[in-house]
Write a structure and sequence with these properties.
Helix content is 50%, strand content 4%. Helix 2 packs across helix 3 and helix 3 packs antiparallel against helix 4. The chain has a domain of 104 residues. A two-stranded antiparallel ribbon has the order 1-2. By secondary structure, the chain is mostly helical. It is built from six helices and two strands, in the order H-H-H-E-E-H-H-H. The N and C termini lie far apart (47 Å).
């Protein structure tokens, strides 16, 4: 298959490009179960992203594996970056020669994976620039005082 992959309906709705084709499967908007194998860092990232993605309708019951893949890559990236901070990007080989740290390759690969998975959820800078969310209008204090909580907006 050539060309750009199709954008999920949830992203189309947020960007205002939904033309109502309605042929995309709509899994339940339930929060997926966090896999047991995630380490502490990946679990924290899972919780953080669920709080952000689910209210936007960008996370459904069948997206758990995709989110878990991102979270594992995130945890690997954090671990590799911590090791790079300790040892630097150049280390001494067993033969005594300076070489690139293996943690640099791990960090770089994890970053590439993270970027790819973030795009799947509409969370890279390019996709985010395409999303236009209308903020919820808040009633002001005077309106509540005169019209109560069930005020009607005109215009």
């Amino acid at each position: 298959m050539t060309g750009r992959p199709p954008k999920p309906m949830a992203l189309k709705r947020l960007t205002g490009t939904d033309r109502g084709s309605g042929d995309e499967p709509q899994p339940p908007a339930d929060i997926p179960k966090m896999p047991d194998h995630l380490n502490a860092s990946a679990r924290r990232e899972w919780r953080r992203l669920v709080k952000q993605l689910h209210p936007l309708g960008l996370l459904t019951s069948i997206d758990g594996d995709q989110l878990a893949l991102y979270c594992v890559a995130y945890a690997r990236w954090c671990e590799a970056e911590a090791e790079l901070a300790r040892s630097g990007v150049v280390v001494v080989s067993p033969n005594g020669y300076p070489i690139q740290s293996p943690h640099l390759a791990i960090a770089t690969k994890a970053m590439e994976q993270m970027y790819r998975y973030l795009g799947k959820f509409g969370m890279n800078p390019v996709d985010r620039a395409r999303i236009h969310v209308t903020p919820v209008q808040q009633e002001d204090a005077i309106e509540r005082e005169f019209f109560g909580r069930e005020s009607v907006k005109i215009g």
